Amino acid sequence: MTEQELAFTQDELDEIERIKAKFPTNKAATLRVLWVAQEKYGHVKPEVQNLVADTLDLPRSHVHGVASFYTQYYKEETGTYVLDVCTCLSCQVCGGYDILHHLEDELGIKAGETTEDGMFTIQEVECLGACGYAPMLQVTNGVYANNLTKEKVDKLIENLRKGKKPEFESMVMRQNEKRKKELSQ
Amino acid sequence: MPEVFIDNERYEFEGDYMALQFILDLGKEVPFFCYHPSMSIPANCRQCMVKAGQYIKDEETGEYELDENGERKIRWFPKMQTSCALKLSDGMVIQTQETSEEAERAQKDTLEFLLINHPLDCPICDQAGECPLQIQTYKYGPEGSRFEVKKVHKPKRVQLGPRVTLDAERCINCTRCVRFAEEISETNQLTIVSRGDKNYPMTAPSETFDDPYSLNTVDICPVGALTSTDFRFKARVWEMNQTPSIDITNGKGCNIDLWTRDNEVLRITPRHNPEVNDYWMPDEGREAFEQFNKNRVSRPSITLDENNQSNTSWNNAVETFAEILEAHDPDQLAVFGTPHASVEENYAFNKFFNLLGASNARFTPHIIPGYGDDFLITDDQAPNTNGCRLINLEETDDTGIQSAVTSAKVVIILSDDLVGRGVLSADDLADRYTISLATNQSDTTEASDLVIPITCVAEHAASYVNIDGRIQRSFPAKETKYTNRRLNLEMSEGRLDRYGTNFDNWVNEEHKIDCLPVWEFLNHLGERIGLEFQYDHSRAIFDEMSDRIDPLKGISYERMDEELGVQLPIEQQEVTQA
Amino acid sequence: MVEDWKSYEPLIIPDIPNLHRIEVYEEHDGYRAFRRILDNPEEWSRTNVTNEVKAANIRGRGGAGFNAGLKWSFMPQPDERPRYLACNGDESEPGTFKDRNIFEFNPHLFIEGALIAAYAMSVDVIYVYIRGEYIDWVRIFEKAVEEAYEKGYLGEDILGTGIDIEMYTTYGAGAYICGEETGMLESLEGKRGYPRIKPPFPAQKGLWGNPTTINNIETLANVPLVINNGADWYQSIGAEDHNGPVLYGISGHVNKPGVYEYPAGMPVEDLIYDVAGGIRGNKELKALIPGGTSTPVLRADQLEGVSMDSNSLRDAGSMMGTAGMVVLDEDTDMVDLLWRITHFFHHESCGQCTPCREGTGWLEKVLLKIKNGEGEIKDLDLLLDMTTQMEGRTICALADAAAWPVRHTINRFRDEFEERCKKSVHAVA
Ligand SMILES: Cc1cc2nc3c(=O)[nH]c(=O)nc-3n(C[C@H](O)[C@H](O)[C@H](O)COP(=O)(O)O)c2cc1C
Ligand code: SF4
Ligand code: SF4
Ligand code: FES
Ligand code: FES
């Protein structure tokens, strides 16, 4: 991909304007516009970082420094699905590493790698704020898959292969009986 | 006046002060890395730790509270403080490593951390000898290493830009380089990339660090992480000799140091002058060191037949010059001074021809419109345009120079490549007898009939008036065939100068140029033609000027040395194309 | 210590279906506190609101436990500069997963609390900074903000009072350090999340150099309760000096992990054995990390009679932190656990300051060595030394947060660590 081919559509530019309007400086929009770019291209490799910098009229070095600081930005191309397996504290003690290693075995790759068919990337990540539902993983910066077992992981992979992502799971407080009842209806 | 107590001594202070700067100004020491007086304070290296607290004052009486022994009560701050970011306040108590073991301990602890991932390759590092990390470690560091696990590996020998090389493993992440590009040169070409102990400075992937001031980052990098690509491995600091001077590549007159070894200028670094260039200089000015060593005019030369110049003796050069002068009336001479030479050279040169009966020398400024920036690079390509004006040389433009040449039989040019910079063409000079007094080979010397080699800024003491009307001076840094470091008290001696002899391979006669200061050559010429003209030293010329020229009244080399140059009471003249 | 907790009805996340919808929230007295203030500007002057909240002693739920009203009172007098409230929804402290429940189940309570805070401090713009991984919750929350705008609670001329307050939601992209308040400000300004040196404090120079206050999401969700029921009522909930409802996140080896809302000062044993259903597989309790990774681990024998409030936990040798409790059973390998904790801090150190950048990595590497059975006893002392070299020497508290668990886990489980170390070469002849 050459830099010439990279461009935001009018819709995206409109969205960028809406983001900019939230802040008194263009610089403040950096993180959000990197997100817009990553949603579009699936990564923020250097040429995409430059597009962001140029669109916001910011130094390219600034955008590069920011992109490299935050772990959710993909600085390289990834598989269609990125499986971020939490192995931090609560997940560690609840079998997070078993889930990670099971995935590695199933997909034949190590954490940090992408399957040959370009379908899956596995990453080991830090706490995702779902410690009560450990072990868990996040799919491509999106939906959380909670309370994992090996069987659940196999099913997840099978579904993803078919293009079916897990649905958002509402984790209602156990004290909220009425809500739970309503949710199960 | 508010007071502070540092290592049990009382000091008064006025205004806003950070503790570290205050301590440094007192001539005392606290080790530090990230702090730089001209940039923002990130307090990230955590090296400058001191113990600090506050004497407790009774709010009502304003008196200090005393303990049972009659000593003032101190409320110590709960943590060690970074002195670079610690604002002085009335009644503050500070203990540096000299009086507090805790401070000493904290400094040692930080140094230990700084060293664990440092490659410790001082023997092959360019920074060795002038490396703050090396020096602070020696003075304040831990004894052995307790680090027995794997070091972090980072990119090495990265060409950050055309002039700067990065060794990221040596970097201590002080962010001085990044702050320089943000706050001083404002090119914003650098950032820290990645996170945590993988951090290092970088450009954007598609960019190169071609900041016109990039080499300043090499000066301020407190370790050997940033080095000058050009200077890498060329010389060790302790082999070199450091002489104060002035950047002559443009009109700003940045204060600089010339670093010489065996009479070669090996590098140029900025010298602090808050009135002119602060701690900085443009990269271009640093590259000028080549012109002091290479491509020099050494020994007079003369054109015998059409195109062949050949060296000749000084006697013959004087003789030829004298014969030409004797054969022509003063009004047949076109005499050109130059903004590229010092005030003293122009003055002596002009005076010589005045004495002969010629009118004032002409000069034309050397301006490239739009070349400069708002910082230290100027449109003016010469160091002394205002100096020429000060001594009343006749300012003219290209056409003025050309018509002067047309109506003359003899053209005498002081140190100005008028052909090279397009004011004249070689053809213009073809039918005139042309004499160049020059430091370097150029299109102009090539088109000349007689070339007299003269000293350059690195070889003489002389002054220059910058675009803002500030007069500043140089010192001789390298010997010519006729000067001797050991006899000239103005010259400094490096280790090699002191201990080298003509018979070891440290010293090379070739590096000494066969040239004379303009005034000295004119002394000889004057003597030959019976002119009363004699200056033993540029200082004598300056003294005469300061007697005769109003704005120079009361100014001397001593004052320039003490005050880092002197602002002249002259109208700030916009230096533009006339 | 709270004893009658069994009858407690959640207030922050009450058991009301669809409360996240503004009509439902309004039906249940939502935005009443805010309206009351606006309707009685004399009784509820900005100062009075601040004083009431200060008197209630809402201890910051982001980890440091600072009195929210007191923090508000540090804002300088209004001048020509814009003023900001930055709401911390970064929630990245391992073991912590409570704020997301507010976004999902009772977002308007938080919005109302933030509005009251903004009113009290004459704030012009509220930023809500949510961790990037919570994108699904960002979307849910953004809907709530939209509703609040539609109903005139946000924007220009709020409810016809002439007061203007904007609320902008934004999100991060993966960096624990952006939960540190000044790291968050840098991130909001679009930069690398490098925490700032203090002073100047954010109230003096915060976002873009202007007066700014930072509060945690849960902290602000408590504010409407105080205005509706008064500081005295709020004081009466929970423990002495640490009161109000708390969202306890319980994870690890319990039968019923999850978020629970109970008063501050809950008996630890009740939380583990009653509320969270006891230890999985009927195992023995080994230890508890009471409030997120940074808070020192407590051995089971240190937990007797301890309750979840700052005084009790301090006396026991730990801290309340975020009330994210990680329960550890008898099989837990403390060496592995501590190594993984240091791995986290090594990964998340922003790298600005020397002791943290270098120290976190060194801690992890030495612990890995010990975990792999290659450590020596002297390494344990080296680790303890390092913790003193890091603590209190850095720009932000991440280095402290990394040092404490190392010091306390080694000290409290020294035998286990020594057992994993190689026998010294010089030992036994
Ligand atoms: C390393 C570090 C990470 C932090 N992460 C969070 C966080 O994720 N969420 C949060 O609310 N506070 C976090 N804090 C605390 C904040 O700095 C700040 O104290 C808090 O947001 C203030 O709000 P409060 O007074 O309402 O608790 C963190 C602090 C540190 C030192
Ligand atoms: S390269 Fe040098 S100046 Fe730049 S951050 Fe590293 S140590 Fe500091
Ligand atoms: S303590 Fe660590 S995280 Fe905090 S500023 Fe320093 S390096 Fe960054
Ligand atoms: S530890 Fe895995 S989600 Fe918190
Ligand atoms: S010089 Fe003070 S922290 Fe670096």
UniProtKB/TrEMBL annotation, chain A:
GO CC, alphabetical: catalytic complex; membrane protein complex; organelle envelope; organelle membrane
Cofactor-binding details, from the entry: Binds 1 [2Fe-2S] cluster.
MF annotations from Gene Ontology: 2 iron, 2 sulfur cluster binding; active transmembrane transporter activity; inorganic cation transmembrane transporter activity; metal ion binding; monoatomic cation transmembrane transporter activity; NADH dehydrogenase activity
GO biological process, one term: inorganic cation transmembrane transport
Coiled-coil portions: none
Gene3D superfamilies from the UniProt entry: Glutaredoxin (3.40.30.10), NADH-quinone oxidoreductase subunit E (1.10.10.1590)
Binding site for [2Fe-2S] cluster: 86, 91, 127, 131
PROSITE patterns reported in the protein's UniProt record: COMPLEX1_24K
Family to which the UniProt record says this protein belongs: Belongs to the complex I 24 kDa subunit family.
Name the UniProt record assigns to this protein: NADH dehydrogenase subunit E
TrEMBL record, chain B:
GO biological process, one term: ATP synthesis coupled electron transport
Example GO molecular function: NADH dehydrogenase activity
Keywords, comma-separated and alphabetical: 4Fe-4S, Iron, Iron-sulfur, Metal-binding, NAD, Translocase
Swiss-Prot/TrEMBL cofactor(s): [4Fe-4S] cluster; [2Fe-2S] cluster
Pfam families: Fer4_NDSU1, Fer4_Nqo3, NADH-G_4Fe-4S_3
Stretches assigned to the 4Fe-4S His(Cys)3-ligated-type domain: 102-141
Keyword flag Nucleotide-binding: no
Residue span(s) of domain 4Fe-4S Mo/W bis-MGD-type: 240-296
InterPro entries noted in UniProt: 2Fe-2S_ferredoxin-like_sf, Mopterin_OxRdtase_4Fe-4S_dom, NADH_UbQ_OxRdtase_75kDa_su_CS, NADH_UbQ_OxRdtase_ferredoxin, NADH_UbQ_OxRdtase_Gsu_4Fe4S-bd, Prok_molybdopt-oxidoreductase
Family note: Belongs to the complex I 75 kDa subunit family.
Annotated protein name in UniProt: NADH-quinone oxidoreductase subunit G
Organism in which the protein naturally occurs: Fodinibius roseus
From TrEMBL, chain C:
Cofactor: FMN; [4Fe-4S] cluster
EC number(s) recorded for this UniProt protein: 7.1.1.-
Superkingdom, natural source: Bacteria
Transmembrane segments: none
KW Transport (keyword) present: no
Domain NADH-ubiquinone oxidoreductase 51kDa subunit iron-sulphur binding: 335-380
Group of enzyme by EC: translocase
Any one GO molecular-function label of the UniProt entry: metal ion binding
Signal peptide limits: none
InterPro entries for this protein: ComplexI_51kDa_subunit (IPR050837), NADH-UbQ_OxRdtase_51kDa_CS (IPR001949), NADH-UbQ_OxRdtase_suF (IPR011537), Nuo51_FMN-bd (IPR011538), Nuo51_FMN-bd_sf (IPR037225), Nuop51_4Fe4S-bd (IPR019575), Nuop51_4Fe4S-bd_sf (IPR037207), SLBB_dom (IPR054765)
SMART domains given in the database record: NADH_4Fe-4S
Keywords: 4Fe-4S, Flavoprotein, FMN, Iron, Iron-sulfur, Metal-binding, NAD, Quinone, Translocase
One Gene Ontology biological process: cellular respiration
Catalytic activity, as annotated: a quinone + NADH + 5 H(+)(in) = a quinol + NAD(+) + 4 H(+)(out)
Assigned protein family: Belongs to the complex I 51 kDa subunit family.
Purpose: NDH-1 shuttles electrons from NADH, via FMN and iron-sulfur (Fe-S) centers, to quinones in the respiratory chain.
Protein name in UniProt: NADH-quinone oxidoreductase subunit F
